[in-house]
Amino acid sequence: MHRLTLKFNFFYPIILLSLLVIAFYNIFYRLENFPISSWDEARHGVSAYEMLKRGNFIVSTYRNDIDYWNLKPPLSFWANIAGYKLAGFNALGLRLFSALSAMLTIILVAIFVYKKHGRLASLISTLTLTTCTQFLINHSARTGDADSLFVFLFTASIMSLLLCEHNLKWLYGSGLGFALAFLTKSWHAGNIAIIIGLYLLFTGTYKRLNHTNWILLLICMVFPILAWGGIRYQYDGLEFFKNMFAYDLLQRSSTTIEGHLGGTLYYLEILWRFFNYWLAILYGLVLVYANKDFSFKQFLSEKNSYKIGICLWVIIPLLLFSLAKTKIRWYILPVYPPLSVIIGVLASKLLLIEKLGTKITLLASILFVSFHYEGEIQAYLNKPTPKLQLNLIQKIHDIEKLKGYSLFLHLPSSPAKWAQNMVLTSELYTDSQVEDGGMNEFLKKDKALLLLQKGKGTKQLIKANQFIIIASNKWGYIVRKSK
């Protein structure tokens, strides 16, 4: 047994490194090749680009007007800006820090579980999160949204909270994590504050805190937010904050907005959709422990504070988002790290104490599930869905003399309306300002390009107006006037 332990200790860093390499591949492979999504990702990308161009890193804009729809503080925009500076004005720059945040979250889970529960639990937890499809490919690691950074800060904050049982200084790290999470995704960070409060209450940790501890915790949680708020107030007074409170908190919580419907069990259904096989393993583990009187009661009695924290980490986001009327599937992303921790811990305990048959069954199940999800991830990575209108805009990326031209849109079958991903692609790849008004305004303006979708009469339109075709593909044309 001692020799087996020594061998496992030797192979642990090799296996862990292999898992992290797989995670890196899953997150970064062809990251720049996937088309930009037209909703949150594009909106964030536009705001970050315009912040950088205008030199104002506090006020977010969309098409150079103050954005009172995407009511988020600026930290996620700053991450996008840093990505642009490091990787360029392209999809990779847009997504770079989302990808890095996801990678750091996986590493955090690996280290945390190793320190708390040992090598085997660390490997299983890492494997679970590395093959979690929603965490990787749904509005998170591989997109330029705020969610991946938010999940990383959420994870770091709650892990710090769980460590404060041994050293109260970690509590301040948890408070700072909350503040940074708020500056990333606004009211969503309220989950962290509630977990901190309930953890301190249920575990009795609040009894250990003196006046200095409370003051320092409050400073860590509130001061960064107040500092940003004070600076933001200088630009448009209370307007942003009123919208942020009324729309982003009250309306999202009390009414269904933007068609985001869902019942009370919506988020459990989402978990089952993206995580069903891992949940099946978790359910099986709980059943086995429930039938093992010698271990289950003992397991429940150990480290109660820690177990309370882990349970709150899963339950609070599920509960609060389920109570809110607006349901969006990626809101539940913060629960995947703690679920991975729980699966790793429970599975490793069984693998260490159970009979050979149970060990083989459990290990085979873990390998089967991880291979299944990895197959889904690989299928996604190797089949990006092209968006031809975006590819058309990218075709003029290297034509320097067209940089900074105004870009207009003409659609033959519907009113011309700029999709958000077209706005961002135009800004990133051509430094163009998209404008409304279609062909009529295009004809009036110098240094202008027209994006024409193919349709009945498009070629005749080009010929009749003597437009010069700059680029084309199956979707349409980019043209300019002959004079």
From TrEMBL:
Q: Where is the Glycosyltransferase RgtA/B/C/D-like domain?
A: 72-227
Query: Where is the major localization of this protein?
Result: membrane
Q: Can the keyword DNA damage be found in this entry's annotation? A: no
Annotated membrane topology is: Multi-pass membrane protein
Q: A Pfam family for this UniProt protein?
A: PMT_2
Which keywords fit this entry according to its UniProt record?
Cell membrane, Glycosyltransferase, Membrane, Transferase, Transmembrane, Transmembrane helix
Location(s) in or outside the cell:
Cell membrane
Q: Which residues cross the membrane?
A: 6-28, 94-114, 149-172, 178-202, 214-235, 270-290, 306-324, 330-352
Q: Which PANTHER family match?
A: MANNOSYLTRANSFERASE YKCB-RELATED, UNDECAPRENYL PHOSPHATE-ALPHA-4-AMINO-4-DEOXY-L-ARABINOSE ARABINOSYL TRANSFERASE
- In Swiss-Prot or TrEMBL terms, this protein is called 4-amino-4-deoxy-L-arabinose transferase-like glycosyltransferase
Give the species.
Answer: Neobacillus ginsengisoli
